[in-house]
Amino acid sequence: LQSNIAAAETYLEHWRDSGVQNHIAGRSVPASGGETFENTTPVDMSRLCDVARGKASDIDIAALAATQAFDTWRDVTGKDRRDILHAIADGIEDRAEEIALLESLDTGQAIRFMSKAAIRGAENFRFYADKAIEARDGKSIHAPGQMNVTSRFPLGPVGVITPWNTPFMLSTWKIAPALAAGCTVVHKPAELSPITAKILVEIAELAGLPTGVWNTVNGFGEEVGKALCEHPLIRAIAFVGESATGSAIMAQGAATLKRLHLELGGKNPVIVFEDADLERAAEAAIFMIYSLNGERCTSSSRLLVQASVYDDLTARIAKKAAAIKVGHPLDPDTVIGPLISQGHQAKVMSFFDTARAEGATIATGGERVGQTGCYVAPTLFTDANNDMAIARQEIFGPVLTAIPFKDEADALRMANDTDYGLAAYLWTNDLTRSLRMTQRLETGMIWVNSENKRHLPTPFGGVKASGIGRDGGDWSFDFYMETRNVSFAT
Ligand code: NAD
């Protein structure tokens, strides 16, 4: 822990001095008007650095820079785009330790997970680097006396708006395919964790990305985020964040007919039948709700368990959860660090009172940890039902609600009885049951007998209030590109 703190302090010195500036047309620039806001760490609420508080006029400048850069970037060959994206991945790997340490301090996420997230960021760039050459390919479609040929073209300058929970990894996941497609980018990082987004754009330019192709404007969602969505030069918005913000973005983008990709919240069920491997299911459920502080869109926040094994499974989970280490995010043993902010800590803890009032039992946790910092204990609620607030609202913390079900129909009804539809986790060794269930579950992704194991070529995204659109594989190119058909007559 001490050596990690010392290393993080060394990296922080630079940001304490320079602050996190905007990055437009290849230059670090203050916000117009020079306003800043303070960025603190949820470890103890101490100051990390100041951050440029961008304004709508900064979005104007960045959108213009992205538009001008698009003129040349659109025609850079697939091979050259591939080489630049690989060079960005190299740059991320070279600075992975710095990124992980700063991300941990900025977000409160444990270093054991942030080290992997930094490397995953590099993988995202490599994955889309290798797809860059074929991004524009289409197909030929024949008709009598006619041959049709399709090809894809980059949309133009696009806006990317990201949340605070795993900001570095999510930024790479949204921006790498945009660059591979030939789009230029204006990125609006989350105001609560902006440091690594600035490192990322600097790495990209050092790796050879032409200036103006990627611009970063910091600030608040209601100011710069809104201005980005409304900007006439910006052709699309790729957004990751809360469902309510997704609705606001749709409204803000309506006047300019923005193409939107929305990756939003979740209340994802993990459904455990009595024939499942209970030990594996318990370990997976624990990983999916207590890793990354439970601040994870695909977290398994509702545990639906067949009544016959409910006591057994919840007892196993309560015992394991109580043993999870909560502590300083830079401690290599820590699993749960502080939540992102005092406001979010208060929101998560408000569910403890609501749950008690609604009659749920706290099997473990249900309290804050320590007096400074935004720590809460890993929490398991039992004796819950699917109508309680803890089963319906996205808590976005290390809080699991266990609900018993009678049979398959009961499990399916409860799993789908939610506003959300991002992911579901199904535990059963009955193949025909898993086929029936996967056809009826209303979610974009289902993992059967597994936690969330991301395979980059597969589609990622949700239905209902969890979002619109898919990332991953070629799906990201469908969003960032336009398809054109040319028809030749004989
Ligand atoms: P948020 O919606 O509050 O903020 C996300 C981003 O949107 C921030 O950069 C914010 O400044 C910006 N923003 C806020 N208001 C805006 C507006 N009116 N116009 C434009 N931009 C605006 O979300 P958050 O609290 O930062 O992140 C947590 C949420 O993100 C959770 O709901 C979580 O489930 C979701 N999330 C979803 C996925 C996914 O892939 N589905 C992944 C990670 C997080």
UniProtKB/TrEMBL annotation:
Keywords assigned by UniProt, alphabetized: NAD, Oxidoreductase
One GO molecular function term of this record is:
5-carboxymethyl-2-hydroxymuconic-semialdehyde dehydrogenase activity
Q: Using the record's annotation, list all stretches that form the Aldehyde dehydrogenase domain.
A: 32-486
| Coiled coil regions in record | none
The record's section on Gene3D superfamilies has: Aldehyde Dehydrogenase, Chain A, domain 1 (3.40.605.10), Aldehyde Dehydrogenase, Chain A, domain 2 (3.40.309.10)
Task: Spell out the catalytic residues.
Answer: E263
Q: Which InterPro entries match?
A: Ald_DH/histidinol_DH, Ald_DH_C, Ald_DH_CS_GLU, Ald_DH_N, Aldehyde_DH_dom, DH_HpaE
Biological-process GO terms, alphabetical: 4-hydroxyphenylacetate catabolic process
Which family is it part of?
Belongs to the aldehyde dehydrogenase family.
Give the protein's recorded name.
5-carboxymethyl-2-hydroxymuconate semialdehyde dehydrogenase
Which organism was this protein described from? Profundibacter amoris
